[in-house]
Amino acid sequence: MEGRKRVMLVDDHPMWIDALSEDLTEVGFEIVAVAKNGTECLQRARATKPEVVVMDLQIPDPDGASCTEILLGEFPDLHVLVMSASGERDDVLRAMKAGAKGYLVKSASKAELIEGVQRTAVGDAVFTPGLAGLVLGEFRRMVNVARAHNEEGPVLTTREIDVLRRVAKGLAYREIAEELFVSHRTVQNHVQNVLRKLQLHNRVELTLYAIDQGLHDPNE
Amino acid sequence: MGEQSTRVSWLKATSSWFRHGYDLLGRSLNVLLLVRGVLALHAVVQNLVLVMPQAANPLAVALVTAVVVGWTAFVSWRFRKPSGRTVGMFLADLAVTLAVVASTAFVVGEDSTTMPLAALWMVGSSLYVAVLSSRRWAFASALAVSAVYLLAFREITLGHVNMVLITLISTYTLGELMSQFKASITEQERERIRTVALAERERLSRIVHDGALQVLALVEREGPSLGPRGIRLAALARESESQLRNLLRDREIVDDEQAEEALVDLAAALDKYQSARVTVSTMAGQVMVPRLVVDEVEATLLEALKNVEKHAGKDAEAWVLLDQETDDEVILWVRDNGVGMSADQVTDASIRGRMGIKDSIVGRMSALGGSAMLKSSPGLGTEWELRFPVDMGEL
């Protein structure tokens, strides 16, 4: 690794910030900024330009999902790992669609958390079983919406569905790779692809929404 | 709502139409008192001016007229308070009305073809029932009055038929309108309760979320590094954390409709099985399914999870995934990472009915028109794949 990865922590609970920064510093990350609300988060991210942001979803305004949207709009190369204690589904999905790399619940173990940040830092997708289930459902919803507009919609390949379902059923990537007779990397790629499709289609869906609302200019 | 529980308020909502804020009853009652008073006045004037001079028994006419006035005052006074609105009182009112109507033939004599003693006043008792009690009883009472009225005359004229029609139509209309009002006020009150309860729940969840959940998650995280006691604390924290989280997630305020065909959200129903050892993954949206189906699916899931607890081993975890391939079918996977079973054990178990496989899981699924498949091998845990239709077309 060339140099230490620069990390920013966003959480409105000082105790969480303390615990996280201790753990992450220990394994070689550099904490360049912490923020306890959305406004601080945006300001400090712009000032310190971290490579990785660990984002709590429930922070005072703007919330974590909105911050993720804004930051990824400004810094597309930023890697965001979303964390939350209660898993508000819509917020989690919103953050993932905005381009967050992964999602962990706060009750994840220390090891899971460190691994999650490490994988996020190199651009891998971090999926929990809960997130995989959410994403599967979201694709079905998006396809239905797209069909209602006579569009194709984002279709997952059979393989991608196989992989996601196994993630949701609690299998580790290694176990999935064994079951499907593919490499660990291939599993990782599938998950990554799913995430990319999700983000890509989010833009399509926003356009569809704009058309629905009559906001779209056809000459554009 | 004050200190009442939401559930109690919910049940009480059906009677909110006469409570202070709406006071539908109070206002209707005032109108009703006025109407019956005017009708009584009408009867008095008609009896004294038109009927008495030609009546066979003028004194009796005066007496009946006095009864009309006296009874109107008495019954209206009794009905002002809820305690006075007894079934007996309604029956007494009806009886007096019937008596006054029936007395016409005896009191007025041969000449009674056009001038009934009660006049329009006879509608009054039925109107009271329509407002204060139910529309069915009101209509029944109107029918009784009409019948006696028609029987009181030797020959029936168009005027009599018109009176009967007015009695029936006004009672029917008023009863119908009142029950519409009551229903919509109940609905409105329930909507209000639901909104208030949801808002309160949201407020509480924010507080719990910002406080307790964070601390519990931290204990879970830091506990294990403090040795065996810490591990135990972490496990406890994990239990209460998932309990709290499920509580916060539960959006169902009250069982709206207990009906078996009422639609409920399957995803929300399954979410509550999330625990320290069970991870439930569902979609963000709702899967609306008849309550009957949800009950069966929950029972099946419970059986499968019970098996995990009993047979999969101490450290086994379970994952539940709810997914769909088509809109009319739901797939539910229940997987654990426990000790698993060999093919022989599976066959054995399903034949001997051990572990509730045959009836509780396979049986339930086939009853729903679905299927249940068990996959397991030693050391690799077990996995149920449950499929069932949720096509709600007919159900």
Q: Please name the CATH topology of the largest domain in chain A.
A: Rossmann fold
Tally the structural domains of chain B.
Answer: 2
Order of helices and strands of chain A: EHEHEHEHEHHHHH
Strand arrangement, largest sheet of chain A? 2-1-3-4-5
Oligomer: heterodimer
Helix content of chain A: 55-70%
Unreliable stretches of chain A (pLDDT < 50, length at least 5) are none
Strand content of chain A: 5-15%
Q: Indicate the overall shape of chain A.
A: globular
Describe the structure in your own words:
The complex is a heterodimer of chains A (220) and B (395). With 220 residues, chain A is of the alpha/beta class. Chain A contains nine helices and five strands. In chain A, helix 3 links the parallel strand 3 and strand 4. Chain A is globular and about 50 Å long. The relative contact order of chain A is 0.09. Chain B has 395 residues and is an alpha+beta fold. Chain B has twelve helices and seven strands. In chain B, the strands form two sheets. Chain B has a five-stranded mixed sheet with strand order 2-4-5-7-6. Chain B has a two-stranded antiparallel ribbon with strand order 1-3. The longest helix of chain B is centred in the middle third of the chain and has 65 residues. The interface between A and B is large, with 34 and 38 residues.
